[in-house]
Design goal:
With 640 residues, this protein is of the alpha+beta class. Helix content is 32%, strand content 21%. The protein is built from 20 helices and 32 strands. A nine-stranded antiparallel β-sheet has the order 2-3-4-5-14-9-8-7-12. Strands 15-27-28-32-29-30 form a six-stranded mixed β-sheet, with no helix packed on it. Helix 4 packs across helix 19, helix 7 packs antiparallel against helix 8 and helix 9 packs antiparallel against helix 11. The two termini are 29 Å apart.
């Protein structure tokens, strides 16, 4: 999973070989490459910098990488420049030891004052000449401190190996990570290890098809699904997990995972990880609870510390889905305590908990004249209440469960039957002015057409609210048929999500962004599964491909990819937290799912009829229990 986020942290991303005169500024020393002769794989990269005629190879590990640079002959100096991103940093050249060590505290916010990414780089060849610099300017001495403080080292011509490891704890820990992950292995051996790790992960789903493009697209999406969240913990001298906390700035025992936007990833990515690797998922859940223990709140968005990005408190959905799927190995009671805190307690600062919670509890909705994005918040809070309620019920907290299940119906309070959409409502109960094509205001990254459907926990209630199955099917048809017109609204200018919806030309269905990702499955739950299969096939084959522009919008930590993987398998987590998957249609000839610790699941097309079956038992509601699915067997669904 995120074990396989095989890249060094973004805060250390300007290391570059160079031949000839010393040029430090990144915008002056760059070189072009030829894509047609480059190799870019999960386990290996090979590039030739045409300006310098230097060939670079790299294979990654969890916390570092091995680079091999082939410097051509000639009198010009052969140099490696190590430059952190903007921010305070330090670098020290230990030429006699063939090493460079340092750190950068450069970041984009959301971290304590003592945050730093430490590194150690080790070379296999003698360092002939070296120096340091600050903010792109050389200085005297072999130690530099200041903005973008870095170093350069020079070698004789030929092959140079550079091993680099990183740590968020200390330089000593970076050295430990280097010894653990890189020592004693050359590039072929390390590449073989990394390739084997990726092969194991990608092999959790075996697909049979003659369509090479579908195959490349599917496994490209699988690769993206396992890049996040980032493993943030490390291993001490005794082999125990430890981590720097981006919440309190201290080092703690245990796992930690970061760099995930829960508003996106709760929908498909975490349900997929839960299905394919329950032991790792359990470790992730414990890591998220460590975040709560150290920061006082569950994370809305970890990058790597708490960030007030997007809305809702969807850690509830992630934890509830793991519990509903039967995943153990983390403390369910602590998980519920953390959820309850989000649901019941008004936050003491921005960026945690729920904005507008007091009004939401008092009125049954978030008022538009007090809080922006009020409709989207109301819908998300109602769903998150449902997720917490399911866990409360599981653990026997009956009073809490009753309150939260009741609050999960609050979506009905922003339904405006006069216009047929979820609408912004003021504190006095009046509706705000309405335009079906206007984005922003009471909606987040969308408008009424994209936001009205966000009731995953009560689809039958939504269907009834809209007037029944036939009415909602017509409404879904209209979503796909209405031209992709929009008004910028409170966004003032056209944002990229608007552009992407218009370019996709799928009507008001904006697959380029997360709010609509469950919408097509409402067809199935309204007993119109044939419409689901038709539309899902169109999305799979028209809005995804294996090329560099293979996504119609933001990938968002693997969520867009996980939508593809689930949908191509004929399954979808319509409501993470309820313990079920909705069935659809199978894109491939046959699929074998091989979870890490449960029996195989075969997915194949139905021979006769349209009602799906699991182990020869019909599924008339077009849903299958995740726990039953993980007992193994054969799922039969219609072909797409």
């Amino acid at each position: 999973m995120s074990t396989l986020r095989k890249t060094a942290p973004e805060t250390l991303s300007r290391d570059q070989p160079q031949k000839g005169p010393l040029v430090i500024p990144a915008d002056e020393r760059g070189s072009c490459i030829r894509r047609d002769e480059s190799v870019l794989r999960p386990d290996y990269m090979k590039l030739r910098l045409l300006r310098y005629q230097v060939t670079c190879e790299m294979t990654p590990t969890e916390r570092g990488a091995l680079f091999v640079f082939a410097f051509p002959g000639g009198a010009a100096a052969n140099r490696l420049i190590i430059e952190p991103q903007k921010g305070h940093s330090e670098a020290t050249v230990l030429a006699n030891d063939r090493r460079v060590v340092g750190f950068t505290s450069g970041n984009s916010g959301g971290v304590p004052a003592n945050f730093a990414c430490y590194y150690e780089m080790e070379f296999n060849r003698p360092v002939l000449h070296s120096g340091t610099f600050v903010a792109g300017h050389p200085i005297d001495g072999l130690h530099a401190s200041g903005d973008r403080a870095g170093a350069f080292v020079e070698f004789a011509e030929g092959m140079v190996e550079a091993r680099i490891a990183t740590s968020f704890i200390s330089i000593a820990q970076a050295r430990r990570n280097l010894e653990r992950e890189l020592a004693g292995r050359d590039l072929p051996a390390l590449r073989q290890e990394t390739a084997a790790a990726w092969k194991q992960v990608l092999g959790r789903i075996a697909v049979e098809t003659d369509n090479a493009e579908w195959l490349r697209t599917f496994y490209g999406c699988m690769y993206h699904c396992f890049l996040f969240p980032r493993v943030f913990h490390e291993f001490d001298a005794d082999g125990n997990m430890v981590h720097y906390s981006p919440c309190d700035g201290r080092v703690h025992a245990g796992p930690l995972y970061t760099d995930t936007g829960f508003w996106d990833t709760y929908r498909t990515q975490f349900p997929l990880l839960n299905l394919l690797d329950r032991p790792r998922s359990a470790e992730m859940m414990e890591g998220f609870l460590n975040f709560y223990r150290e920061g006082g709140w569950l994370s809305q968005w970890s990058s790597p510390g708490p960030r007030g990005v997007m809305i809702g408190t969807h850690s509830e959905a992630v934890l509830a889905h793991a519990i509903a799927s039967g995943i153990t190995g983390f403390d369910w009671e602590t998980a519920y305590a953390a959820m309850r805190h989000d649901c019941m307690d008004v936050p003491d600062r921005r960026g945690v908990g729920r904005e507008g919670l007091r009004e939401y509890v008092e009125l049954g909705y978030v008022p538009a004249d007090s809080v922006v994005q009020s409709v989207s918040m109301t819908l998300d809070y109602a769903y998150d209440d449902y997720c917490a309620a399911t866990v409360a019920a599981t653990l026997g907290h009956k009073d809490d469960a009753a309150v939260l299940f009741h609050r999960s119906k609050n979506y009905r309070n922003v339904w405006n039957a006069d216009v047929g959409f979820m609408c912004g409502r003021n504190r006095d109960g009046s509706w705000v002015p309405f335009d079906q094509f206007e984005w922003g205001g009471p909606y987040v990254e969308g408008g009424p057409w994209q936001s009205t459907w966000a009731v995953p926990h009560d689809p039958q209630g939504l269907i009834a609210l809209m007037g029944g199955r036939a009415t909602i099917v017509r409404k879904l048809d209209a979503l796909l048929a209405t031209p992709p017109f929009f008004q910028a609204g409170t966004y003032a200018a056209e944002i990229h999500e608007m552009t992407e919806m218009a370019l996709a030309d799928f009507g008001q269905y904006a697959h380029s962004n997360q709010p609509v990702h469950g919408v097509l499955w409402l067809y199935t739950l309204a007993k119109a599964p044939e419409r689901n299969r038709h539309s899902v096939r169109r999305v799979l084959t028209e809005l995804y491909n294996s090329g560099p522009c293979g996504f119609c919008g933001d990938e968002d930590n693997g969520e867009m990819s996980a939508w593809y993987v689930f949908s191509a398998l004929g399954l979808y987590p319509f409501c993470p937290g309820n313990g079920r998957l909705v069935t659809g249609g199978l894109l491939f000839d046959r699929v074998v799912i091989r979870p890490a610790d449960t029996p195989e699941i075969v997915v194949e097309p139905l021979a006769l009829g349209l009602v799906p079956k699991f182990n020869e038992q019909s599924l008339p509601d077009f849903e299958v229990s995740i726990r039953e699915l993980l007992e193994g067997g054969t799922l039969q669904v219609p072909a797409l």
